[in-house]
Design goal:
With about 200 residues, this protein is an alpha/beta fold. Helices cover about 25% and strands about 20% of the residues. The protein starts with 6 loop residues before the first helix and ends with a helix. The mean pLDDT is about 95. Bound molecules: adenosine-5'-diphosphate and magnesium ion (MG). The site of magnesium ion has 4 residues, from loops.
Length: about 200
């Protein structure tokens, strides 16, 4: 019998795949992701783009973020485990601890700039993925921060754009009732408009 893999075992396997990309191969894939992303109308027209500081082998988008710096917002984890967003600190190359930044409990840099806005006020949210499928199902690190923060968004709502390497795709991901699906996934091989996107637009 071919039992579907649990989220936990998929997470382990796909985090490993993401972390095992190094050097020139990783750089080239990250450059391609950023080139696809920068060409998207949803990104070009956005006034506020939520991005992320890379962690655990997530695609590093810092050059893209520097290019669009005035539009970039960064997540902060609230005590109730929801995410809010603050304007990005200055993304200087090589700075250990930029002004207006501090490290959260995972060691990820968070901005301390004001104002603080909710996800509903972003025009596009770039979400780092552990895994994904073409229906827009998303596997994250397992804390549910994005699911918690993106549930119940009303129109016009932000574009939800997953960011991953193509090796993180799976045929079908198990989804729980609280999982919020993605509109697009950008990888090093292209821009995927998910099945969820079609459902949202045309039904
Ligand atoms: P991830 O999305 O990071 O892959 P999961 O989808 O497995 O992780 O979610 C992890 C946990 O987050 C769940 O067990 C659930 O308890 C919690 N969670 C997710 N969404 C919500 C929500 N809307 N409200 C409260 N808890 C949530
Ligand atoms: Mg989830």
């Amino acid at each position: 019998m071919n039992l579907p893999l649990s989220k936990t075992s998929l997470r382990r396997q796909l985090r490993q795949a993401r972390k095992s990309l190094h050097g020139y191969q990783r750089d080239r894939k990250q450059q391609r992701i950023q080139r696809f992303l920068a060409a998207m109308p949803q990104i070009r027209t956005a006034r506020r783009i939520a991005a992320y500081m890379p962690f655990d082998g997530e695609p590093d988008l810092l050059p893209f973020m520097r290019r669009f710096e005035r539009k970039i917002w960064l997540p902060m984890i609230r005590p109730d485990l929801h995410l809010d967003f603050r304007p990005a600190f200055t993304l200087t190359p090589n700075a250990r601890l930029p002004i207006n930044a501090h490290r959260n409990r995972f060691g990820i840099l968070e901005s301390q700039r004001l104002p603080i806005l909710r996800s509903a006020h972003m025009d596009a949210i770039l979400i780092p993925l552990v895994g994904f499928d073409r229906s827009g199902n998303r596997l994250g690190m397992g804390a549910g921060f994005y699911d918690r923060s993106l549930t119940g968004l009303r129109r016009p709502r932000p574009w939800l754009i997953g960011i991953a390497f193509d090796c993180q795709e799976t045929g079908h991901l198990p989804a729980d009732p609280w999982d919020v699906p993605l509109d697009y996934i950008v990888t090093n091989t292209g821009i995927i408009k998910t099945n969820h996107y079609s459902i949202r637009k045309f039904v």
